[in-house]
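Appendix B, record 7
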Amino acid sequence: MEVAILKEIIKETDKNWRFIFESPLYDKIDFIPGQLVQIQANVPGFNDPVVRNYSVASWPDNSNCFELIVTYLSGGAMSEFLFNYIEPGDEILYKGPMGIFTLPDNLMDRDIYFVSTGSGISPFRSMVNYLYENKVPFKNIKLFFGTRTQKDIVYRKELEFLDKNLENFEYIPTLSQEKDSGLNEGYVHDHYLKLIDELPDKPLVYYCGWNRMIKEGRLHLDKRGFQMMKDIRVEIFG
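Structure tokens (predicted):
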């Protein structure tokens, strides 16, 4: 485990906060966009340290910092700790970044669909910003983000900017509990499945979010002949 210091908390929405950590022992942290870190903390009320995995929401930028965005879960040990106890200047232990939930080697081979809910947008934010900053070419990428209302949208201005300025990238937020917003309405599955059914070739689909959302998505794609790893990649939390 390594030591990280909390630099800043940004209250992105009421229930989604950004936590920016600095690793003081390194000049920079090298990682692949899409990877996760495992953090460990001594949480009040627990005898043993609490350990959780979070996808890194930032991207490699030659700094020694990494960002996590965390959704508040009432009663969740690490969630309660991050929202109610930790303050800038406090230390945590972390391991990583690590994992294989990363972009394919050949980005020109097929379309890619990112499907996320809540803080599950983390690895996709990392990937898309990395592609933009490093001018990496790709075929087509669509980022579908499902949430309840506009006030729950995370990284909205940033992703709208990328939608306008990153060629072949499209950002598609979907609201399940708000109408007349000018955005897509309904559940996130409805919108990417409609497009998939019109495509001549299968896109590579990435899911990140709650287990229920991913399970539903996999069932939809299974009916359409998609296969795990070949056509589907998942990162589950909760």
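Remarks on this record: The radius of gyration is 18 Å. The CA atoms of residues 57 and 122 lie 4 Å apart.
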